[in-house]
Amino acid sequence: MKKLINDADHVVEEMIDGYVKAFPQYVKQLENPRALVRSELDADKVGVLIGGGSGHEPAFMGYVGAGMADGVAVGNIFASPPPGPIVAVTEAIDQGKGVVHVYGNYAGDIMNFGMAAEMADLEHDIEVASVVVTDDVASAPKNEMAKRRGIAGEFFVTKVASVASALGHDLVGVTRLANRANEVTRTMGVGLSPCSLPQTGKPSFTLAEDEMEIGLGHHGEPGIEKGKLETADKVVDRLVTAILEDMPIATGEEVAVLINGLGSTTRMELLIMFRRVEQLLSERGIKIYRSFIGDYSTSLEMGGSSVTLIKLDAELKECIDYPADCPMYVQK
Amino acid sequence: MKKLINDADHVVEEMIDGYVKAFPQYVKQLENPRALVRSELDADKVGVLIGGGSGHEPAFMGYVGAGMADGVAVGNIFASPPPGPIVAVTEAIDQGKGVVHVYGNYAGDIMNFGMAAEMADLEHDIEVASVVVTDDVASAPKNEMAKRRGIAGEFFVTKVASVASALGHDLVGVTRLANRANEVTRTMGVGLSPCSLPQTGKPSFTLAEDEMEIGLGHHGEPGIEKGKLETADKVVDRLVTAILEDMPIATGEEVAVLINGLGSTTRMELLIMFRRVEQLLSERGIKIYRSFIGDYSTSLEMGGSSVTLIKLDAELKECIDYPADCPMYVQK
């Protein structure tokens, strides 16, 4: 697949360079070039660090700013950042109140963030708590929740952690609220067409021109069912049904909805999908409190999308409503 | 190309339905289903109407909200809206101070917006002024500026018109400032891969796997040069050189930059492009006042991107800095 790049070995460095030059009012690069933090930190609060592999932009680097994360550790494409930048960001954003690390449930991230947390503790005496996102319903059965991967729902968990910190919760409080957000967040996705890594140029998976794959992962991990492409309504029916079977939502309860595009799926398709989500929830008397539609966490130029629901209570609603000001996500 | 839709004949209706259901706090649908206006209008100002064909989302409907447009007329995919919804929106947003129509320079839009302006005047006694966007450098030579098409730069012209109206300028003042924005806005794009219309499923143009096309239009209109795909830096050199030859920018002058993705181009590529734009402008002593990077005006799932520069003075800077709150564009 064609890409507007210079050198496949330097795409991440050049992307970061473009990013910090474009948004100096928001973000600065530390000595470790894969470590980015807010240009000006809010004083006296728990630090919130996000991170993971590149290729998911605007996640994760796009979400550093007021009301969102304080810093980000940037990995290679679809690969966890090593401990180095994680520790560097942790140190830079700690204000003596500890730092929460929010990341998706992938083996590499678990290992690297775990090592970084230990190093931050031992070498810098910084208390670190981890919130591991596991929103992808398709990635493991309900009785093995801890095996589930983190995908688009990480946006909500990041937002909740960040707002909890902005509201003055301590490390225990921020972690508790972010974990609770994760517990009530579910995502189901569908893949239509692959992406290709700059270094290989090869598609990450193959699907016939009339096929789709339900539950496909953010890096092309196999889903739960391959089949003929169906109408948007039928696909959404599958996704929402799977979510509601996994996490029942009663009549009268409220949710925020995220329809996420994986890269090359048009806003038109995402809006048509939302239309059906709204019909299904409305039929069940579930109220949509707020909607998010767009490319929030991509897989390079992959085709496909996902539906995320987060079940809200008063505390989580306050978080969802809280303003944000980041290079790639602003909310009033 | 695979699409998550239901019925190719109803994609626009279903998209609008999803849109108004997702963002009721921002936008409502009039009796004419292709006519959308802000849920609550700011009192006592010139109305700003935008519109054009669908398939460019988030343009145009995503830009209705505070600090941006008051209403939008929605056409079929890549086709101008007919006069009906344009007149309906014009009538709904007029507050006795007149309405400015901002749209791209395409034959269908010129005809339909022109007819709608006459009808608004004759049937409803509303004064309408038109601002026709012509930012696409590649679409006609410099001595035939009036033949140029409007592409991504329409975002800046819309923003300037909307802010001028919000600041209390009268119809003449809004029109003057928006036209001035158009006069100092230039865009150059590159196409890499086609999109397909839902109704035909056929690609809008063809390019070999190693080819690019400089100056390709937003609906697949032929560009000025086809050739082998080059590095991002070389492509950006071509785009920026063409812009600066067309509109010289002196050392010390300031610009806002928009790197726009056409649909399936990753944020990573857009950021790598920005990196080179910044280098080139910095070498010339041109200051970047503010940067916008993302999918601002797409062509369904087309691959490619564009660089837009708007040359700023104090008045235009005030407009660029003005906050906005729309479903698909928020600025603090």
Write the layout of secondary structure elements.
Two copies of one chain form a homodimer.
Chain A: H1 11-22, E1 27-29, E2 35-38, E3 47-54, E4 71-77, H2 83-93, E5 99-104, H3 107-124, E6 128-133, H4 154-166, H5 171-183, E7 185-193, E8 211-214, E9 225-228, H6 232-246, E10 254-261, H7 267-283, E11 287-294, E12 303-312, H8 314-321, E13 324-326, E14 329-331
Parallel strand pairs in A: 3-4, 3-5, 5-6, 10-11
Antiparallel strand pairs in A: 1-2, 2-4, 7-8, 7-12, 8-9, 10-12, 13-14
Helix pairs in contact in A: 2-3, 4-5, 6-7
Protein model, in words:
The structure is a homodimer of 332-residue chains. Chain A has 332 residues and is α/β, with parallel strands linked by helices. The first copy, chain A, has two domains: 9-184, Dihydroxyacetone kinase, domain 1 (Rossmann fold), CATH 3.40.50.10440; 186-320, Hypothetical Protein Tm841, Chain: A,domain 3 (2-Layer Sandwich). In chain A, 32% of the residues lie in helices and 25% in strands. Chain A contains eight helices and 14 strands. Chain A has helices spanning 11-22, 83-93, 107-124, 154-166, 171-183, 232-246, 267-283, 314-321; strands spanning 27-29, 35-38, 47-54, 71-77, 99-104, 128-133, 185-193, 211-214, 225-228, 254-261, 287-294, 303-312, 324-326, 329-331. The first copy, chain A, has a six-stranded mixed beta sheet, sandwiched between helices. Chain A has a six-stranded mixed beta sheet with strand order 9-8-7-12-10-11. Chain A has a two-stranded antiparallel sheet with strand order 13-14. Chain A is globular. The model of chain A has no long low-confidence stretch (mean pLDDT 97).
